[in-house]
Amino acid sequence: MLHLISLKDWPAKLIAEVLTLADAIKQHPPRYARAMTGRTLLMIFEKPSLRTRISFETGATQMGGHAIYYDMGTSPLGAGKENVADTARVISRYVDLVMARLFEHAQLVELARCANVPVINALTNFSHPTQVLADLMTIREKKGRLAGLKLAYLGDGNNNVTHSLLLGCAKMGVSIRVACPAGRGYSPLPAVVRDAEAFARQSGAQVWITHRPAEAARGADVVYTDSWMSYHIAPAKLRERTRRFQPYQVNTALMKCAAPDAIFMNCLPALRGYEQTAAVLDSPQSVVFDQAENRLHVHKAIMLRLLKETIRGKK
Predict the structure, then answer these.
(1) Distance between CA atoms of 38 and 299, rounded to whole angstroms?
(2) Residue 41's domain is classified under what CATH number?
(3) Structural domain contains residue 67
(4) Cα–Cα distance, 107 to 117 (Å, whole number)
(5) Which sequence positions are flagged as catalytic?
C-alpha cells in the first residue's frame, strides 16, 4: 500500500511524477472531471484548517468524487473512546482514501499501518509533505526547473514545513539553507538534517543550517518563511518568540540579498509585520497565492496517484 506519510519515503522519481500530473491537471481540468467518480475521501481533522480542507474537498468534488469531513473534536477517536488501529480497520471498509491532519506524527503512522486504503499526511507536528509538493510545483512553474536552484528558509527551523522542505528540496536537487535561531527548540531535528544531507549527496544539492539570515538569503532563487506561531505553540509565547525570530524577518533589505529574480513564498497563514513585512508579502516577487492555489492541483494529483496504486495492487 502506497501512502504519503513523509517525503523521506517517496523517491525523487515519484515526486516528479506527481508534480507532472499536477501540472497536467491544472492545465486541463476537464480531462480529470470523472477521475474520482464513485470514490470517497475521508478527511480527519484534529488541527484547524482553511487551505487543506477546502483544497482536498474541492479537488475530490471537481473530479467527481465525494469527501467526508470528520472532526476529531466531536468524535469517539478524539475523546479517546476508540483507538487508532480499530478506527483504521473500520474506515478502510467504507472509503477509498484517508487524509488526516493530526498533532502527533506517531498517530498518523499507526493509522497508515493498520489501514487497507492509502493514507495522506495533511500535516502533523513533524511534517507537511502535501504543502511541500505544492511548493515544489510552484517553484518549478516559476523557474522552469528544480535541480540547481537555491532556496533560503528563514525563521522557525523546528517546524513541520521546514522538515519537509529539507527532504523535498534535497531529493529534487534544490540546495536549501535554513537560517534559524540557535538552540534545540528552534533548529531542525538532527535526524531530518542527516537524511536531507544524504539525499542531497545523491541529487547534487547542498544543505546548510546557519544562524545568519543574510548568509542564507545570499543569491537565493527562492526565499521562504513560515509562521513563528505554529498551531501547537501557546499564544503566551508570542512575545518571546517574536524577539527570537525578529532578526529572521523577511523584509526588503533581506530580499535584496537574494537573486534579483528571486521569488518569495509563505505557506500561509501569514502575519504582516511578523515573519515578513507587508512590503514583501504584497510585492511582485511574492507568489504566495499561486502557491496556495497549487495546493488544489497537487492534492488532486496525490489522490489520483494513490488510487492508481490501489487499483494496480488489486489486479
Answers:
(1) 18
(2) 3.40.50.1370
(3) yes
(4) 16
(5) 101, 128, 131, 226, 267, 295
